[in-house]
Amino acid sequence: MTQEKTAGHIGFRSIARRLFRYALIAFPVVLILSLSVLAGKEYYTGRSDFCGTSCHIMEPYYKSWQRDIHATKANAGCVDCHYRPGERHTVKAKLKGLSQLLSYFSGRSGGARPRPRVPDDGCLRRGCHAKSEFMDTVLEIKDVKFVHTKHMTIDPDQIAANSAKLSELTIQLKTSLDSTTFAAVQQLAILAGDPEKSRQMIRQLVDPARTDPTTAGVAGQYISAMHRDIRLKQLGNLQCSSCHAHNDDEEHFSVSRQTCYLCHFVNQQFNTETARCLGCHKPPSIAIPVHGSNVPEGSADISGASAGTMDHAVIVANNVNCASCHADLVSGTGQVTRQRCAACHDLSEYYEDFDNNLNTKTVGSLHKVHTSNLHALCSDCHEQIDHALQTKDYMVAEGGFLTPVLDNCAHCHPNHHRGHVELLAGAAPSPIPAGMPNAMFGSRVNCLGCHTTAATDPKGTPLIEATRQACVACHSNDYDKLFDQWVSRLDAGIKDARFLATKATKQLEELGESQLAKRSQASQLIQQGNSALQFVASFKGIHNRNYALELLDYASEKFNKAIELMAQPAALDKK
């Protein structure tokens, strides 16, 4: 029995030794075969034609690549650009490829535009677009000069200079304004949106008639510096693929002009800051005929321009604003709407900052997340902006080049209706005393509620006039007569106040030079009365009848006090 067990044990060990020898022989063979298969698979799946022919959603991108200079001349394949140098054979790269494979077979891909991941160091490496050779090269595209460094590099000197300017403007505003007004200016300055709208609101806060006339201009510079700071810092978020992307099937990737327009024109006044015309364009070097055909560049013969020509060199030398002729070259706002966000986000937490805290800091944070991390294109979030010169036929037939100016009344008429609104709200400018707002103010009745009837002004210009019918329509027929009573009483009040103003002014002129103190006091009283009188007369007291009558009484009181003061017996003032 013992001998049988020993023989069996020896036999098992013999079999194990033979299997081990076979394994030692087979392992290198299997390893070599496996490595060969993996190498073949790596080679095959790393070929551009594998990407283009094995996956139907990649077909248009593959065809555009075949026509691209990177394929025809540089012989750069998909993996040469879409992986960082040295990344292709890493575990991370394999996991990326596996995730794309799973997405394809799970049906998650194909419905939306693929998001390419082309890292900057894949473009800016030696043998391709090396930084030292490429970034500072001046590229001339028609009349546009472009340098990559200015668009992709944060200049610390520029940021420092802008920060110093911001500090200087802050000190000036704190000196000129009270703390409450300065805090309001700060809040307006960091609002995301059109800086010009913030400037208009600030001009209402910082009225040149009430403060130092230069303060409103300083506040405008303060807004520009705040927005310039965020724009300079946004350059650090840009990548090669922020501008160079797949925009159509004809080119594998190109620069969409929309990217240029959105970066330069969003929330920017025409021909200022990043929208400054000569920052990108060279002025035309040819004579531009006002009528007729263009004169060939370099030609001294301008006889073809029958009605005269325009020389841009003279225009630039005289510092004529480009907006004088070209204000229509930019159209569209490029704004970001909530609907654009909803295309990617469906949870309320993503909208919290957008809805409640949209300021320059928030915008900077959103740009960093979406541009740097998520590789979003500008057009994914922003509405379109157009930038083009309109044809002469359109200009003559439609007058379209005038539209931006006609739509901006405030350019020629800044704060045109401000006085009317102040009267309506019972908030006249200091030192005129404040009062109660119009009763309709609390009912949210706006200008359209009363101005309902077409009419013309003394120049024959059409306008919409307020009439008593608007009162009757909302109230009753009794307001037809009430309207006449209101107008009559206001006219009488203005007439009486003007009579007293004339009388007081005449007495002031007749007052002897020796009575300096009395002249000063009387002059101040007359000035206070005139301020209230002119406010009511200029901005139509009917906008707030009760408040207007109070101000007329106030004006009359000031005039009467001046008259009484000057009627007192003369006394020699001490000099």
How would you concisely characterize the structure shown here?
This protein has 575 residues and is mainly alpha-helical. It is built from 30 helices and 10 strands.
Strands, helices and their partners?
Layout: H1 2-45, H2 48-54, H3 59-67, H4 69-72, H5 78-82, H6 91-106, H7 120-123, H8 131-134, E1 138-141, E2 144-147, H9 148-152, H10 156-176, H11 179-189, H12 195-205, H13 215-234, H14 240-243, E3 244-245, E4 254-255, H15 257-265, E5 288-289, E6 309-310, H16 312-317, H17 323-326, E7 330-331, H18 338-342, H19 352-356, H20 360-373, H21 378-381, E8 386-387, H22 392-398, H23 403-406, H24 409-412, H25 418-425, H26 447-450, E9 451-456, E10 462-466, H27 468-474, H28 478-510, H29 516-538, H30 545-567
Antiparallel strand pairs: 1-2, 3-4, 5-6, 7-8, 9-10
Helix pairs in contact: 2-3, 10-13, 11-12, 11-13, 12-13, 13-20, 27-28, 28-29, 28-30, 29-30
Total beta strands: 10
Instruction: Report strand %.
Output: 5-15%
CATH topology of one domain: Butyryl-CoA Dehydrogenase, subunit A, domain 3
Low-confidence spans:
302-306
CATH architecture of one domain: Up-down Bundle
What's the shape? elongated
